[in-house]
Amino acid sequence: MSTHIDEPRTDDPAPAPTGGVDKAQYGLAALLVVVGLYTVYDATTLRIGFGDPVGPRAFPYVVGTVLAVLGVLLALATARGSVGELEGGEDVDLAQGSDWVTVAKLVGVIAFTIATVDLLGWAITGAVLFAGGAWALGSRTLVRDVIVGLVLAVGSWYAFYVGLGIPLTPGLLDGVL
User: Fold this and answer.
1) Do residues 78 and 26 make contact, with C-beta atoms less than 8 angstroms apart?
2) DSSP alpha helices (H): ranges in the chain?
3) Closest CA to 36 of 59, 61, 67
4) What's the DSSP call for residue 161?
5) Are 173 and 124 in contact (CB under 8 A)?
6) Is the pLDDT of residue 78 over 80?
7) Mean pLDDT, the chain, as a whole number?
8) Residues 6+ apart with CB under 8 A from 55
9) Which of 16, 20, 14, 56 minimizes the C-alpha distance to 39?
10) DSSP label at 119?
11) What confidence score (pLDDT) does residue 136 get?
12) Burial class (CB in 10 A: 0-12, 13-18, 19+), 51
């Protein structure tokens, strides 16, 4: 009982569609170019302080330029016939419907964070955001999630405040942090 090597397998994904223009890739390329050019334009309107040699324009110039260049490269790759690969490694059952309960939990956690960040401060709401997101996605280790969330939130608070000079709201922990 021998099988021929060139026989198609039945469990292989369907081949990529041939011919035609992938309008979605061109649309994404155009969006990248427009957002990139607008970012560069918007950076030109920023005011520069006399004490900062780099100024606030450097980062938007870099990001905008990279976005525009990536958009052009995507359009060129699409014109040359490059298409995205089919999903092969995902273990997602596309026949299943969306899990709207999980989406609602995540929206609730994010809404809570937005509503309370000024009152409670970033350190507390950041920890709640992390622990609540982990809970919504199925974690059952609440104590560990809260501890990790606190470490990440306080660490990011100090990174912004000390490292970047950007004060995040301390909220209830004003004077403690």
Assistant:
1) yes
2) 23-44, 58-79, 100-120, 122-136, 142-158
3) 67
4) I
5) yes
6) yes
7) 84
8) 46, 48, 49
9) 56
10) H
11) 95
12) exposed
d(CA 157, CA 100) in angstroms, rounded, equals 32
The whole-angstrom separation of Cα 121 and Cα 150 is: 12
The one-letter amino acid at 114: I
Nearest alpha-carbon partner for 149 in 163, 114, 157, 160: 157
Tell me what percent of the residues of the chain surpass a pLDDT of 90. Answer: 55
Over residues 65-94, mean pLDDT? 84
Q: Work out the end-to-end distance of the chain between its first and last CA atoms, rounded to an integer number of angstroms.
A: 74
pLDDT tens digits, 108-166: 999 999 999 999 999 999 999 999 999 999 999 999 999 999 999 999 999 998 888 88
Please tell me the distance from the alpha carbon of residue 20 to that of residue 57, in angstroms, as a whole number. Answer: 41
Q: What does each C-alpha distance from 24 to 32, 57, 65, 74, 169 come to in angstroms?
A: 12, 31, 22, 11, 41
* The model's pTM: 0.55
Q: CA angle 61-64-68, nearest 5°? A: 135
Only one residue has tokens 């990001």, namely: 63
